[in-house]
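Example for tutorial group B:
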């Protein structure tokens, strides 16, 4: 079995990243973030984990999850 150490999987804790960026006063360009990691090696997958209440009609995170 061959092991490839240069492969990348990206796991983002959405709630904490969003809260931190908001506290620091900036927005995150997720397309740019993805391209940054793609430039570092073969990107296998990128996952964004978050919780959105079902009864909430609109959330700033909804476009990312849809």
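The residue assignment follows.
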């Amino acid at each position: 079995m061959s092991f490839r150490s240069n492969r990348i999987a990206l796991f983002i804790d959405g709630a904490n990243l969003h809260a931190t960026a908001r506290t620091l006063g900036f927005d995150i360009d997720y397309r740019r973030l993805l391209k940054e990691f793609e430039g570092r090696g073969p990107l296998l997958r990128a996952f964004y984990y978050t919780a959105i209440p079902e009864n909430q009609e609109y959330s700033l995170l909804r476009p990312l999850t849809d």
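The helical segments are 14-24, 30-38, 62-65. Compare this with the pattern of hydrophobic and polar residues in the output above.
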